[in-house]
Amino acid sequence: MKISSNLTLNLKKISISDKDWFSKLTYHVGISDLSFPLLYAYRNFLNVKCAHLDEKTALVAQDDAHGKRCYTILGDVNETIIKELTFLGINEFSYVIAAQLPIFKNIKGMKWNIRYDIDFSDYVYDLNKFLDFRGNLRKAYNSYKNHNQLNTKIVEINKNNWEESYKIFRNWWNSRKESSIFGNELKVFCEMEKFIESSKIEGALFYEEEIPVSFLMVEKRGEMLIEHFIKSNSSARGLTHFFYHQFFSKFKGEVKWINFEEDMGLPGLREFKRRFHPEFMLNKYTVRLDKGEYVKH
User: Fold this and answer.
1) Is 279 left (phi over 0), alpha (psi -120 to 50) or beta?
2) Which of 5, 91, 141, 160 could anchor a disulfide with 241, C-beta 3.0 to 4.6 Å?
3) In this structure, are strands 201-208 and 211-221 parallel, antiparallel, or unpaired?
4) Contacts of 90 (CB under 8 A, 6+ apart)
5) For the chain, where are the E strands, in sequence order?
6) What is the DSSP letter of 105?
7) CATH code linked to domain 12-120+283-289
8) How far apart are CA 190 and CA 184, in angstroms?
9) Can you give the residue ranges of every domain in the chain?
C-alpha cells in the first residue's frame, strides 16, 4: 500500500508557550494523561515533546515508565493524519479513547491491534452521586465528622502556603521511599507550583487544630474535575471522605464529573478508587499496526 505524507514532524520539548493551543485540543477530552500541567511537569522525567501538525491536530511523544517511546494524537484524530504518521514510521499510539477506535478500525488496508490498558484507565464519578455518601462511606464520613469535635478548616492553596502542602507530601513520601514512582511524583508536584494560580487549577489544604495534615489539587476541564494529587499525614478514619465532601461540594452546579485518574495497577489504590463507586471508567487503549499490514514505499 503506497501512502505519501505531507507532514513534517518537528517534535520539540514541551514548554509553557504551548499551553494555550495544547489546552484547546484537549479541553473536551477528560483523560488525565493529556493534562498540559502534568505533561509539562513531567517534561524532564519522560522527555515530553510535542508537534503542532495543523490547527486541529497535534502529536505528543513521551517515554513510559520503561523508557519506551509513546505517541498520542491530540485533537482531530482522522484517517489522513493516522496514515501520514504511519508513513513517517509511527505505527503505535497510546492513550486512545474508545470514541477514536472506529477511526482506526475503518482504515482500509490496515489492521490494528487494540489493547485495553486497564491499569491506566480513569475512574470517573458523577459529582452529585459522589457527594451522597452511603453505607460504609457515610459511616467513615460521620466517624471523622464526630471525632473529638476537632476544629478543622479548609484553605485554598496559593503561593503563600504552598510550602505547607509540600511538607505534607514530603512526609507522606518518606514512609514510601521503596517506590521510585512516588519519588518522581513528588518532583512533579514541585513543578506544579507554576500553575497554582491558574484559573484551571485549584487546590486546598486541610487543617486539624491549625495543623496542616492533608491537601489535594484538581484541574478543571470543561464539565470535569481531574484530581491530580491528594496526600495526607493523618490516618484518622474518614478524614479523606470528609475532606472530599467539603471541597467538592462547592462545585455543585458547576461541574458534572470528577476524574480520580488511573490506579496504575496498584491493589491498594484500586480498592480505594472502587470504594467510591465510579459512574464509569474512561477507558484508554494502545493501538498498534499489526506487523506485515503496512509496507512503506
Assistant:
1) alpha
2) 141
3) antiparallel
4) 59, 71
5) 12-13, 49-52, 57-63, 69-75, 92-97, 112-116, 122-126, 152-156, 201-208, 211-221, 224-232, 257-259, 280-282, 284-289
6) H
7) 3.40.630.30
8) 10
9) 12-120+283-289, 122-261
- Please state the φ and ψ torsions of residue 146, each to the nearest 5 degrees: -95, 0
Question: How does the average pLDDT of the chain come out, rounded?
Answer: 90
The residue among 101, 84, 78 whose CA lies nearest residue 284 is: 101
67: alpha, beta or left? (left if phi > 0; alpha if psi -120 to 50): left
Q: Nearest 5°: phi and psi at 24?
A: -65, -35
C-alpha cell at 158: 496559593
How does pLDDT run across 245-277, given as a tens digit for each residue? 999 999 999 999 999 999 989 899 999 999 999
With cell 508536584, the residue in question is 189
- Residue 264 CA, chain-centre distance (Å), reads 11
E-only strand ranges, 147-289: 152-156, 201-208, 211-221, 224-232, 257-259, 280-282, 284-289
CA distances from 95 to 17, 100, 212, 263 (A): 23, 10, 36, 15
Please indicate whether the domains covering 12-120+283-289 and 122-261 agree at the CATH topology level.
yes
How do strand 122-126 and strand 257-259 relate by DSSP bridges? antiparallel
Q: Which CATH class is domain 122-261?
A: alpha beta
Q: What is the mean pLDDT of residues 198-226?
A: 94
With cell 465510579, the residue in question is 278
CB-CB contact of 252 with 77 (8 Å): no
